[in-house]
Amino acid sequence: MLRVPVSDTIVCTPEQFGGVCRQILSAYEISAETAVREGIKKVTLETKKIVRVSGPYKDLKGFYRRDLAHKYEGAGDEFTGIVYNKGPHVGLGHLLEHGHRIANQHGFTGGSTKAYRHWLNGQRYVDENAVNIIIRYL
Fold it and tell me: Are 57 and 93 in contact (CB under 8 A)?
């Protein structure tokens, strides 16, 4: 097996050229994959912070904001960062984001609560910044 030295200049024979190219591309693929993974982790953490602080709603007991979490799934080019609510109040995110009908002891009053589009702030952050942050890691 041909070992390629870490250098800006590589000298090889024409017979070695194919092997050298494969090793260089393999090394670049591994480093690019690692860089993209680190960029996705950074974007995921920042998105969670943005969603946690955005939204003018009152989180009276602190459950909803505290239970926001993140996780990573997949490997290689399928690596994904996910921000979600892990707590027992999972459905609260949907109700806050879209609003809901107001009910009293006699049934629905016909009114609705205000929708707080706080997840939209996180999505905007990802749309506007993800590519640039990932490129910084390359």
Answer: no
104: which DSSP letter? E
- Residue 49 within any structural domain of the chain: yes
Q: How many CB atoms lie within 10 A of CB 57?
A: 15
Q: What share of the chain is helix, strand, coil (3-state, %, to 5)?
A: 50, 15, 35
Q: Does residue 68 lie within any of the structural domains?
A: yes
Print the domain residue range for 119.
Answer: 17-137
Tens of pLDDT, residue by residue, the chain (138 residues) = 455 555 667 788 889 888 888 888 888 888 888 889 999 999 999 999 998 888 767 766 677 778 888 999 988 778 999 998 887 877 777 777 878 777 776 666 677 787 877 788 899 999 999 999 988 988
CA distances from 61 to 66, 102, 120 (A): 9, 20, 23
Tell me whether residue 53 is in a domain.
yes
- Using a 10 angstrom Cβ sphere, with 0-12 exposed, 13-18 middle and 19 or more buried, the burial of residue 79 is middle
The pTM for the full model equals 0.70
Q: Does any domain span residue 6? A: no
Measured from the Cβ of residue 83, the count of other Cβ atoms closer than 10 Å reads 22
